[in-house]
Structures are given as C-alpha cells and as structure tokens.
C-alpha cells in the first residue's frame, strides 16, 4: 500500500497519495425514499487523491451521456449556481481544460439503449471522487462525477459537487460519536463499513460545528435497518435532510480561503458572501443585504402573549427563480417582550409525509442559540418532539415550514406564548 498523507478539515477530508488509486465515494440519497431503503448499489471503497484543490477554485466541467428525458443537467446547473452564489467557487464549461470534471448524466446515448439496457443495468450511479483530479504538486487530469442515478433534486448535485470540492460525509467527522450512536453490527452486515469510517483527531482541524441537518449526512436508514441513531432523540428524523445548510457552504469557503476585500457588518450570524461581496450569506430565515430583514412574501409576524394563541399556516413549494428542484420555505416570526422565552407546540400537521430526512415537507422550530445550525426537524406525528413543547431563547423565534419541488399544499397549526425563563438558584 502506498504511503499517504491525510488532512481532515471540518467535515472535509483531504488526502494526497503517491499514486492515483482512483477510488470513489458514493452518494447517500437513500434518505429520500420513504422508509429510507436505497435502490442503487453501494460502493464499498474508501476515497483517494483527496487533498487536491481545484485550481483557482474553478471547476471546469462538461456533460456526457446527455440523453435524459427529465433534463437532469438543469438540476446540476442549478446546483452549480447555488454553490457559486455563496462561495468563491466558479464553474466553467470546458472539456479541454487541464483540470476537468466529466459529469455523466446517463450511460445511454439514445432511448433504444436506455429502454433495453435498463433491464440489465442500473442507471449511471450516483457518486463522485473526493477532491479535484491530480495531486497537490500536479493538479491536472480528469475525474468523473456520476449523476445519472442520483435523486431528482438540486441538492443531490450540491452533495456530489461538494465531494469533488473535498467534502466527505458529515457522519465521517472524528467527533461524530459525540452526536451519533453507530450500529456497528448493522454497518458490517450491510457492507457499509468504508462509508462509516472516521479519521483520528490528530489528522483533523474542524472548520464548522457538527450539523445533523447537513446535506452531507447519511440517513439513519441508509440501507434499510438503522445504521445509527442520534444521541439527542429530537434529531431522529433530521439525518439525511437535503435543504443544504449554512455550514455546508461555509466550510467550502474556509477550505478554499474564500473572502472579500471589505467585510460587511452582517447580522444574525451572517458573513460577507464571497459569491457577491456586496451582500451577506445569511442563515435561513434572515434576508437583506446584512441579514437583518424579513422576506416580503410567505412570511408571518406573530406577537406572543402570556396566554396561548393558535395559528394555522398553509404552505407549499413555489418556484422563486433560484430553487429549481429544491425547497421553498414559509416563515413565521414569533416575537416576545424582552427577557422572555418563547414556547411553541405543534397541534396539527396536514399533508406532510412522514419519512426519515423529512424531504418532502416539514417543520423546523429554530430553538438553537446558534442561528446558523439546523434545529430538529419534524414531519411525523409520532416523533418525540411532536409531543413536547419547543422552548426558545431566540427573540424572534422562527418557525420554518419547508416544502420540496414538487410537493402539494400542506398546513401546520401551532400554538405559541411567552414564558418566564427558568432560573436556578
């Protein structure tokens, strides 16, 4: 085995070897199936050539296997736009570049081949090599990103492109055992050991906090039976969610040293966007140039009192120009007097599919003091958190109702009030 050097940063693992072993890391889109059972095969090998960056933060790409009735290339292009709008990473279509990415949309060149070969083979797969082609001393060559077998979601493209940029799965972080309980027996039985390995702290620098809602996280039930459970039971349905988090983009920015010449005075945990230095990257629920505004539509302002009030909010996916194949959210902002906490309880959910990952529609009551991190998601009436009240120190407390393209109308009824903080003497 060749001698190798590892460097793991945040949930990004960078690995340079003395030879090109060409191994790959598979996708984790199984969470999008109800019950979590994945249909495509598993790649059981670890990753190689992980340390190489894309020169100048530019991914030169081209599409092959372009026959695809649903025009999956549009989803990949939307994923590229999502990343480039929030980072310094740029995407340029150029199949002759010295360092390039071949995005394989389908293994078929025409409908006849697709119709007949589908009887014997799966689609093109859903996986990407980790890191850019080449080595640190010679960053050149070509890699293949298999996208034909990925789920029809923009965030599947973000997931695979993040692998190519250097990001591994969130559950592979060396601190994952602080948050997850891994079922080692089931991992071995399912052949997923290579996908569930971690890297020692001695080779690690963490850029961002562990985020249960990261788009790089596997579902609890990646291959059927539970691979892992959350130490905090409130997060039982959050693993495998695919909205793409604030920290998913921030760690890419930090690894590629993205930044702006002048930093804005961003609020609510935001920072100056390397994708557009005239505005901030904002946590979900915060808008405007400096992350200090509400959105002008699909937004509700609620004032809490000391007695319970009830609110029913309908919501559904709406195309807004930048969320093709992705999610749309409706926000409720609950405000209370100073030095009060806000209590929320969910009374009724309508037309919300219960599933691991909550990837059709769901609710996030933002109770975490870190406004950038994902709070527990709710989409099932039997969840532990569905039977309890949410108590938040955030003022306002944001209730985010999200729905994916395409999903029909949903509705949530919840009660809210303010309470005095619990004090310990």
UniProtKB/TrEMBL annotation:
Keyword Heme included in the entry's annotation: no
Active-site residues from the entry: 160
GO molecular function: metalloendopeptidase activity; zinc ion binding
First and last residue of the signal peptide: 1-21
Protein name: Zinc metalloproteinase
Organism, as annotated: Caenorhabditis brenneri
A GO biological-process term: molting cycle, collagen and cuticulin-based cuticle
Keyword vocabulary terms for this entry: Disulfide bond, Glycoprotein, Hydrolase, Metal-binding, Metalloprotease, Protease, Secreted, Signal, Zinc
Residues annotated for Zn(2+) binding in this entry: 159, 163, 169
Places the protein is found: Secreted
Domain spans labelled Peptidase M12A: 45-259
Co-factor binding details: Binds 1 zinc ion per subunit.
GO cellular component labels: extracellular region
Domain of life: Eukaryota
Cofactor: Zn(2+)
């Amino acid at each position: 085995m060749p001698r190798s050097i590892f460097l793991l940063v945040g949930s990004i693992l960078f690995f340079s070897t003395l030879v090109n072993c060409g191994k790959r890391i598979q996708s984790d889109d199984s969470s999008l199936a109800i019950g979590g059972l994945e249909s495509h095969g598993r790649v059981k090998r670890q990753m190689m050539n992980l340390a190489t960056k894309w020169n100048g933060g530019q991914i030169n790409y081209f599409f092959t296997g372009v026959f695809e009735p649903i025009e999956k290339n549009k989803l990949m292009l939307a994923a590229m736009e999502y990343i480039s709008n929030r980072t310094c990473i740029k995407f340029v279509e150029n199949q002759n570049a010295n360092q390039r990415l071949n995005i394989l949309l389908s293994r078929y060149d025409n409908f006849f081949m697709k119709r007949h070969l589908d009887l014997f083979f799966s689609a093109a797969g859903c996986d990407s090599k980790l890191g850019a082609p080449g080595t640190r001393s010679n960053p050149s060559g070509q890699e293949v990103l298999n996208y034909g077998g990925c789920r029809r979601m923009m965030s599947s493209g973000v997931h695979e492109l993040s692998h190519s940029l250097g990001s591994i799965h969130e559950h592979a972080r060396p601190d994952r055992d602080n948050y997850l309980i891994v079922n080692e027996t089931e991992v071995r039985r399912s052949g997923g050991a290579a996908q569930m390995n971690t890297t020692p702290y001695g080779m690690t620098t963490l850029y961002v906090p562990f985020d249960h809602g990261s788009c790089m996280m596997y579902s609890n039930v990646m291959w059927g039976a539970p691979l892992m459970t959350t130490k905090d039971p409130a997060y039982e349905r959050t693993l495998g969610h695919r909205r793409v988090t604030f920290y998913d983009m921030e760690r890419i920015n930090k690894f590629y040293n993205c930044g702006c010449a002048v930093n804005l005075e961003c609020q609510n945990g935001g920072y100056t966007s390397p994708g557009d230095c005239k505005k901030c990257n904002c946590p979900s629920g915060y808008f405007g140039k400096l992350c200090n505004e509400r959105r002008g539509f699909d937004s509700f302002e609620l004032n809490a009192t000391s007695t319970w009030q009830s609110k029913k909010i309908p919501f559904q996916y709406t195309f807004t120009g930048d969320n093709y194949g992705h999610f749309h959210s409706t926000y409720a902002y609950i405000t209370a007097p100073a030095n009060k906490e806000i209590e929320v309880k969910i009374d009724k959910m309508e037309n919300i599919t219960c599933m691991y990952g909550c990837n059709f529609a769901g609710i996030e009551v933002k109770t975490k003091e870190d406004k950038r991190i994902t709070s527990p998601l709710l989409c099932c009436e039997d969840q532990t958190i569905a039977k309890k009240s949410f108590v938040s120190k955030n003022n306002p407390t944001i209730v985010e109702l999200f729905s994916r393209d395409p999903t029909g109308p949903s509705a949530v009824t919840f009660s809210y009030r303010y309470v005095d903080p619990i004090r310990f003497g």
